[in-house]
Write a structure and sequence with these properties.
Layout: E1 5-9, H1 13-25, E2 30-34, E3 41-42, H2 47-52, E4 61-62, E5 71-74, E6 77-83, E7 88-93, E8 98-102, E9 105-108, E10 112-114, E11 124-125, H3 130-140, E12 145-149, H4 153-164, E13 168-173, H5 185-196, E14 200-203, E15 207-211, E16 218-221, E17 224-227, E18 230-233, E19 237-239, H6 242-246, E20 256-257, E21 269-271, E22 276-279, E23 286-287, H7 292-306, E24 320-324, E25 327-333, H8 336-341, E26 346-354, E27 365-373, E28 379-386, H9 389-401, H10 406-410, H11 426-439
Parallel strand pairs: 1-2, 1-9, 2-5, 9-21, 11-18, 12-13, 12-18, 13-14, 20-22
Antiparallel strand pairs: 3-4, 6-7, 7-8, 10-19, 15-16, 16-17, 22-23, 24-25, 25-28, 26-27, 27-28
Helix pairs in contact: 1-7
The structure holds flavin-adenine dinucleotide.
Flavin-adenine dinucleotide (FAD) binds at residues 9-15, 34-37, 44-45, 47-48, 78-79, 109-111, 127-128, 154, 240, 243, 273-274, 290-293, 295.
Length: 440
């Protein structure tokens, strides 16, 4: 076969992983990455920490040594259309020059864009790249009151960053509790009460209005007005699926539809990352994760397959961790609300423990909650708040993906040493409590 031409659209986690995997699978392939941004790779997950001032914006910029690997990297190039019949993409360079590039296989990794349901007057921001984060950071220098819309992980990390910068912060969340997609309200309470000592948190109410003509002066939340100089909208993202949709590639409600090989309904066209929709291994229904870890795994599968290899992505359980105000919060799988909306009859077990025995220096609180299908006792969700939350949730994520039961989790063999854990861990105890509730 002649040299395989692979095009990857987008140089984020998914596109990067796809490039590495494709090159490994077929080192002779002619690989081109097309990225509309003017700069090379960066780490979006570090943006809140840069706004806080814990690290520099420059430290988030990384050079992808594509050229050294024999990969063509086209920055400042935007793909404007895909023709799946002629197997070509139309590309426009920032200078205005247009070209058409042929492919044998294509990976679409166009990411997602933040939702912006408000008029973008001066002082209203979203944070999704270095430029938007720098704009927030600079504006914060002369601001006093910041409002963050959305209490997901990004919203809370940004709220904390602005609080640490000395601003008075108000977080408003439409749903009844913070981190509503990840945590049950009882677990969210711990986060809310910690944050509530440093900022105002309003849940279960909408931001109905941003006041000001040229720039932000106030906000109105469920009829009450609050002062504001800046508003950060972190109320979710929308998959970049238009390019695919316009090319006749099947898109679902949340993203580009893909199978387990991350292939779209069009042969030799793959998609990965925030722009895609896959199938939940818990509900077997369409699911989006929109997390960097998932984007990387999906990109690896898409790149391998685009280069003629075989790899699968077996679905995401949206395993995530965040740290706000020094509090570690992690979750995986379905929370009770999601589980019930998918028809599960759930049983849960919650254990309050410590990161280390209480007699050991540095011992901190840790709460673990497990959610299982009451019928089969199969684990379908886990949440943890406190020191060591991610470690417990990572174990639970593997258990969920491997369809383990509460019984198996209750008997899990977890490493112990007083410097890192309790001998009877909160994770296994939570499983025992849930099992007891089934037997009762
Ligand atoms: C502030 C913030 C904090 C976050 N924190 C975390 C975290 O702690 N943990 C976590 O797991 N996730 C986190 N995320 C989410 C994570 O960053 C994303 O899930 C991840 O970046 C998705 O990778 P991707 O490759 O799918 O998309 P992206 O990283 O968005 O990359 C897509 C790329 O495609 C390019 N592109 C789009 N259309 C075109 C086109 N037509 N032509 C050429 N190029 C195009 C875009 O310019 C973009 O660079 C965070 C996100 C933000 C914004």
């Amino acid at each position: 076969m002649s040299q395989r031409k692979i095009i990857i659209i987008g140089l984020g986690s998914a596109g990067f992983a796809a490039a590495l995997a494709a090159k490994k699978t077929d080192p002779k392939a002619a690989l081109t990455i097309i990225e509309k941004r003017g700069f090379d790779m960066f780490s979006p997950c570090g943006l809140p920490f840069a706004i806080e001032g814990r690290l520099s914006f420059d430290s988030l910029l990384h050079r992808f040594p594509a050229e050294d690997m024999g990969i063509t990297k086209l920055l400042n190039h935007e793909v404007t259309s895909i023709d799946t019949k002629s197997k070509t993409v139309s590309v426009v360079e920032k200078s205005g020059e247009a070209k058409i590039l042929p492919f044998d296989s294509l990976v679409i990794a166009t990411g997602a864009a933040p939702l912006m349901p408000f008029e973008k007057i001066n002082g209203v921001f979203t944070v999704h790249d270095i430029d938007t984060a720098k704009a927030v950071s600079e504006f914060a220098v002369n601001a006093r009151n910041a409002v963050v819309v959305g209490a997901g992980p990004i919203g809370l990390e940004l709220a904390w960053a602005l609080y640490k910068r000395g601003l008075s912060v108000l977080v408003v969340e439409l749903l009844p509790s913070v981190l509503p997609k990840a945590l049950d309200p009882d677990m969210a309470k711990q986060v809310e009460s910690m944050l509530g000592r440093h900022m105002k948190i309003i849940t279960g109410k909408p931001l109905d209005w941003i006041g000001g003509t040229d720039s932000v002066e106030s906000v109105r939340i469920a009829g009450t007005e609050y002062p504001a100089d800046m508003v950060i909208v972190a109320s979710g993202v929308r998959a970049g699926k238009e390019l695919a949709g316009n090319a006749g590639i099947e898109v679902g409600r949340w993203g580009i539809r893909t199978n387990v090989r991350m292939e779209t309904n069009v042969k030799d066209v793959f998609a990965a990352g925030d722009c895609t929709e896959t199938v939940s291994p818990i509900s077997h229904m369409p699911w989006v994760s929109q997390l960097s870890n998932t984007a990387f795994s999906q990109g690896t599968a898409a790149g391998t397959n685009a280069a003629g290899g075989y790899d699968t992505f077996d679905g995401s359980v949206s395993t995530f961790v965040t740290v706000v105000g020094g509090m570690e919060v992690a979750a995986t799988g379905f929370n009770t609300n999601f589980a019930e909306s998918y028809g599960f009859n759930t049983v849960s077990g919650k254990a309050k423990g410590r990161s280390k025995p209480d007699w050991f220096p540095g011992s901190e609180e840790l709460t673990v909650k497990l959610i299982a299908d009451a019928k089969t006792t199969r684990l379908i969700g886990a949440q943890a708040v406190g020191s060591g939350a991610a470690a417990r949730v990572n174990v639970a994520a593997l258990a969920i993906k491997n369809r383990l039961s509460l019984h198996e989790l209750a008997h899990a063999e977890l490493a112990y040493c007083p410097a890192v854990a309790e001998s009877h861990d909160a994770l296994t105890r939570a499983a025992e409590f849930a099992l007891r509730r089934i037997k009762d």
